[in-house]
Design a protein that fits this description.
The structure is a homodimer. Chain A has about 650 residues and is mainly alpha-helical. Chain A has helices spanning about 5-20, 40-50, 65-75, 80, 85-115, 120-125, 130-135, 150-160, 170-190, 205-220, 220-225, 235-245, 255-275, 280-300, 335-360, 370-385, 395-400, 410-425, 435-445, 450-460, 460-480, 480-500, 545-565, 585-600, 615-620, 625-630, 635-650; strands at about 145, 390-395, 505-510, 515-520, 530-535, 575, 605-610, 635. In chain A, helix 10 (about 205-220) packs parallel to helix 21 and helix 20 (about 450-460) packs across helix 21 (about 460-480). Residues about 1-25 of chain A have low confidence and may be disordered. At the A-B interface, helix 2, helix 10, helix 20, helix 22 and helix 23 of A face helix 2, helix 10, helix 20, helix 22 and helix 23 of B.
Chain lengths: ~650, ~650
């Protein structure tokens, strides 16, 4: 046994209480983990919480200059790949960059309308943020720009308080302010290494939420698709449907014809690309094609079809500065901060998830906290240059990946294409009909209704499915942020429920082995006479200590009744398998003590098997082990059964 | 192997994917738990959540008449012991009942003042509720009446919005309304079997909270103790101390002399009883003695000491009905409901905890959900008969227990004594000085400052101690309900933190055995070459799946670096010990899949050891086992190592 002296000393002092020796068979002692100071434990705990990925490991054993280079590469990943960049890579990036820009331009205009912002803001948002991301971001395939969910949430939250038609300047300023706070929130999550906050949006929640949001977004498009002029400003399904049918006299058949025509075209191209992934460019090019075709059509028919609403005049030129439009006081500050945090967290979730998906396809890793900083800084910069919330978009990234993008240079190419559009091509959009934008949005969000995942949730985990349903209907019928809130609460409640009502299993011996397993799962597992072996499947906390105490007593009662009915050997010992008790708090310690006393009064012995390191430490510190006596803690259930049986034989 | 046919059928269909057979050694198959329908699983889950104590087990296999009797006994526990009641028991109950009434009368008057209610309400509250509890309650030692914490909270929450001096009728009505809602809340927790809600107030939280509340209560008594007339209506420590020193000109030396005299007397008696538990009656009788002595003193000196404020006139007679004073509408309804829920949950926590403490001392069990119904109904009835919130009081129950109470008849005796007081003795309290009530309150609450428990928390669990400190200072500096809220959030956060950042341990083999244990805890445990054996110590959830994936990859990276540095055998296989993974959700399943793919790309094998029943079920349902192939799941780590090693040997 190779021991270091420090450790031996520590154990010697407690040996009498913990070490167990027996002549008849080898019984192993349960050991305390090596002694650590509070400071040391705290440091380790903090580093596990905030630095689980050990971000500084690259810097170990390096020269100063190398360290500086590594730090530079860490802050600006562009330095990692720039030295090896060549013409072959450029060719791939050029193709993919142009492909995504053909998607980005119509999407930018459409999503800005979704957030009730002027269409030009959507184009601005596809220019500055991709440039910043290409400097800071660590994903090679992320296509950056505005996304539907964040646009919808920003639009719905701001419009609830302010009318974008009556106070457009205030509305625009608040959108930039919300973007600024979204960026600050995202960057601080990254800097403070609190990235795990976004983990609380479970997949089930997100499936329901995005599905609900997609329905909401699609319904909003009925305004454009039917040509309705006076539409409700509400988002919920009921007022929207009422508004659609009340304004039937405003429906315009020309708009409907045009809209559904292009919708069918776009959905068909989407279907083709889904069927044959190689034809991804069919759906990627379709939005721009639709915009061009519909614009030409409306231009040609401009003298006969006044009923089709068009985008109209768009200003030429690059992003104007907007730092002076940010509000840092006044009555709407709280609204802007709230909107910023919610859109920030949603767009972050999408960006990180998309980045991770494509990184795992190409087998590289994306550093979550770094991505948060990159996305956050990109939004802060965006808010000062007339951009609203942007992130890594799923549709753009998928097209980018399929088009063969190799590095973030494709984002730079896209930004350049958008720049050209901004500088020279804006007048061409004058006759672009709004109805085509509606069709583009519907096609984009319809893929977000992930009924297959929902079905899988139903099949695998009913509670996850419930969380999914709640967020879906919460978004549809109540409101977007409340639906999200309900879903998060259900997800957290699920964790707490698992902790509050943990499983307790009866274990039995698998004949011919020292293995003890759940007798429900393993039919060959046999109960050991006179023993009741229970496994507690959760940490013992204040939230479940009362329950566990009552539940264990009920197991004992039921076992005794069972023995009585079958004339079996009387129950003498209860073994608690603590393998899955990964933590214990003061209430849990009290419960164990109490339980031992209550069982003692009924002449039943209670012993523990395999307490893990920190549980053992706490048992020791709280002096509970003393009450358990010399033979109260065993390394395995098997050794406990063997040792206790041999003692019983010795003293009949 | 004794198998039932149903089970065999079920397994046969999956045998190809799960069962593992090997010629060289006996490898046990991991089995799925027996198939259950969704409805069956749901029923079992619901019964674990709401009926963990199987409350109907007494009714099994009984005749109809017996069932009726048992139901009657269940609803009115008085029928359980009444048939066996005899004179010996009555003698004990008479003595203890009179003893607690001597405590209950001065306490009732004092606590009512703490809630800013007329003193007579405190006596009313010691009459009706004990009678109702003695019919419904299942604890034999609970002494029922108003308690300090709930009185303080009700007083502070109501006074924040309404002045009890300017609108005494409204204030009183709201206090009754709050009591009504407290009762409704408590009873519904019991009826809906949601008793576990109070488990979320952890012991750490309560130690801090009651300590903080005790300090607040004591500071409030400075008003009475110093004889200050114009006192702040705030509760926090800072405004109270400012008020005390600003009003120095109102300090009255006669009051101070009298107050501190009796305070020293009361504290001395308390000290004596603490030292010698047999002399419990010394501290039990001290409050009434102080009231009598001080009343006589003030009466004798009534012509010379006008500065000492006295209780004054108290109406004679039993509780007047107050159902007509309840508010069920109006602007203060929300306040009454909020106050009711918070005082309800606090008084419930105290009542249940006290009941459980004394029940465990006498080795009987208290049914939490039934107690909640009893306490709730008692408060509903109380609110209609001029009583405010009551529960099982710790001080009264302790005296009751020490004085030898055997059944709840002692509560009936106490109620009778209070009745006599109400009918005949009220004029005697005219000259009772308020300062003595202040001294009684301070003596009562000073015992609630449990610094020993706080020290134990510090020693055993630093995070529990932090929760304790936060609730203590939250109550002192912010407000009583907010302090409580902060503490609950910290406690829940602690659970979530444990789930979000679970431990992952490296396991090693204990030589000569098939046992694998944490190499940090067991120094003799040796790593197995070419294997990395990791134990995940938590369910795998959406909240930790990303973390676990990254952490496991980091373990692999570190292991590979370590092997490189030491020229060891190359890593070939990672075994995940799933014993402590007590649940998995869809995100967790995706993570396992992803992890397997990522490791495969690095030519590393991933196998699972000992997945528990429901995890195995989900692995199976989500078809992940297919991707793990025939040899991906083993019953124990030992078998996995043996089997995989033998395969490697076979194909060198």
């Amino acid at each position: 046994m190779g021991v270091n002296s420090n450790r031996v000393e520590h154990f010697d002092s407690h040996e009498s209480t913990i070490k167990i020796q027996d002549e008849t068979m080898q019984i192993h002692a349960v050991q305390l983990p090596p002694h650590r100071t509070t400071l040391h434990k705290l440091r380790q705990r903090v580093s596990e919480i905030f630095f689980p990925d050990d971000p500084l490991y690259r810097f170990k054993n390096q020269t100063c200059f190398k360290k500086f280079l590594l730090a530079l590469q860490y802050l600006f990943p562009i330095f990692q790949w720039a030295p090896n960049y060549n013409l072959t890579l450029l060719r791939s990036d050029l193709i993919s960059g142009l492909t995504i820009s053909s998607l980005a331009i119509p999407q930018g205009i459409s999503y800005a309308k979704l957030a009730n912002l002027p269409p030009i803001i959507g184009l601005y948002s596809s220019f500055v943020p991709p440039l910043i991301y290409s400097l800071l971001g660590s994903s090679r395939h992320l296509g950056v720009g505005p996304v539907s969910i964040a646009s919808l949430v920003m639009g719905s939250m701001l419009s609830e308080k302010i009318s974008y038609t009556q106070e457009p300047i205030l509305y625009l300023g608040l959108a930039f302010t919300a973007t600024f706070f979204a960026g600050v929130f995202q960057a601080s999550l990254g800097i403070l290494r609190l990235g795990f906050v976004i983990d609380f949006l479970s997949k089930a929640t997100l499936v329901g939420f995005t599905g609900g949001a997609a329905v909401i977004v699609s319904l909003q498009q009925l305004k454009g698709l039917l040509g309705i002029v006076h539409f409700t400003s509400k988002m919920q399904i009921i007022p929207v449907m009422i508004s659609v049918f009340k304004q039937r006299h405003e429906w315009s058949w020309q708009t409907i014809l045009l809209g559904f025509g292009f919708l069918v075209f776009l959905l068909t191209t989407r279907h083709i690309s889904l069927r044959k992934p190689k034809l991804f460019w069919v759906s990627a090019a379709a939005p721009l094609t639709s915009v061009i075709l519909s614009t030409i059509l409306v231009f040609l028919l401009r003298n006969t079809t006044h009923q089709i609403s068009v985008i109209g005049h768009l200003p030429k030129g690059v992003n104007p500065p907007s730092a002076n439009m940010l509000y840092f006081n006044g009555p709407y500050l709280a609204l802007a901060i709230k909107t910023g945090i919610i859109t920030g967290i949603l767009s972050l979730t999408e960006g990180i998830a998309v980045g991770r998906t494509f990184a795992s396809l190409k087998n590289y890793q994306v550093d979550g906290n770094k991505e948060m900083m990159a996305i956050g800084l990109m939004n802060i910069a965006g808010s000062c240059s007339s951009c609203y919330v942007t992130t890594g978009s799923f549709s753009r990234s998928a097209v980018n990946y399929n088009a063969g993008a190799q590095t973030t240079v494709s984002n730079i190419i896209m930004a350049a294409a958008v720049l050209v559009t901004l500088l020279f091509l804006m007048p061409l959009f004058y006759y672009t009909p709004n109805v085509v934008l509606a069709a583009i949005i519907i096609t984009a969000v319809i893929g977000l209704i992930d009924y297959q995942s929902a079905y899988k949730l139903w099949k695998v985990d009913k509670l996850d499915f419930l969380a999914c349903l709640c967020s879906f209907f919460g978004v549809l019928f109540i409101s977007v942020p409340l639906g999200l809130g309900i879903a998060v609460i259900i997800s957290v409640f699920k964790i707490l429920l698992h902790v509050t009502r943990p499983n307790t299993l009866v274990l039995g011996n698998i004949p011919g082995t020292q293995i003890f397993h759940n007798i429900n799962q393993y039919i060959e597992a046999l109960r050991v006479p006179s023993f009741l072996i229970l496994a507690v499947e959760s940490p013992i906390y204040f939230a479940n200590s009362t329950y566990l105490q009552e539940r264990i007593l009920r197991w004992v009662r039921e076992e005794e009744e069972h023995i009585k009915a079958n004339n079996g050997a009387p129950l003498k010992c209860i073994i608690l398998d603590m393998t899955a008790v990964t933590a214990i708090d003061t209430s849990g310690l009290d419960t164990l003590c109490e339980l031992r006393k209550m069982l003692e009064k009924r002449s039943l012995e209670l012993v523990l098997a395999n307490p893990v390191g920190n549980v053992m430490e706490k048992l020791h510190k709280s002096n509970i082990l003393d009450s358990f006596g010399l033979k109260g803690v065993y390394l395995t259930v098997g050794e406990a059964v063997a040792d206790i049986s041999s003692i019983w034989k010795a003293q009949p």
